[in-house]
Hints:
CATH superfamily: Invertase/pectin methylesterase inhibitor family protein
Order of helices and strands: HHHHHH
Domain Pectinesterase inhibitor: 24-178
Shape: elongated
CATH architecture: Up-down Bundle
Largest sheet: none
Low-confidence stretches: 6-24
Mean pLDDT: 88
Protein name: Pectinesterase inhibitor domain-containing protein
Signal peptide: 1-19
Keywords: Disulfide bond, Signal
Distance between the termini: 52 Å
Family: Belongs to the PMEI family.
Amino acid sequence: MKFMIYLVVLFLVLNIMNANKVAMANSLIQDSCKKASKFEEPHYYNLCITSIKQNPESQKARNIDELTVIGVKNAISNMTNVKGIVEKILKERKYKSRLSEKLLRDCSKLYSEGNDFLTKSLKYINSRNYQEVDNSIAKAGTVPRTCEMGFNGDNNQTSPVTKDNDVLFEVVTIPRSFNHDAHIVPRIA
């Protein structure tokens, strides 16, 4: 009987500890997204929360660096998805002109470069080189805008991935904001 009581008490203690970890992670996510969205559009806070929480690893995050890693992984996933959309359009020949085809191929290359920058930023996080984290994520953040500028410049073409690039741009800025707020320009409390 005593063994059963100990087992129940142990189970309750472990449940409380786990619930406490999740609550701490949620608080970290909310606080970090609040700081990141301070100078952004009103919808950015909700995008930040949703984007980070969709990754199951976020419930285990204990600090801003772990959240930054999660944000970078989300950005890599999103950039890979947009590249896949572009490659599908190219494969199925659903572009409107030869110029659109060329621009889509340019975008596909840009997405590959963006993923390379994001992957490098993960290495810089591990080595605590926060300035290079910022630089790498910033370079990746130019990818969706550069892709769109190719279409919207003098070419007067319509990008088939404008909405995807808009979301991608914002998803990439999330981990950059986390890193920037924590390590580049930390706020004095």
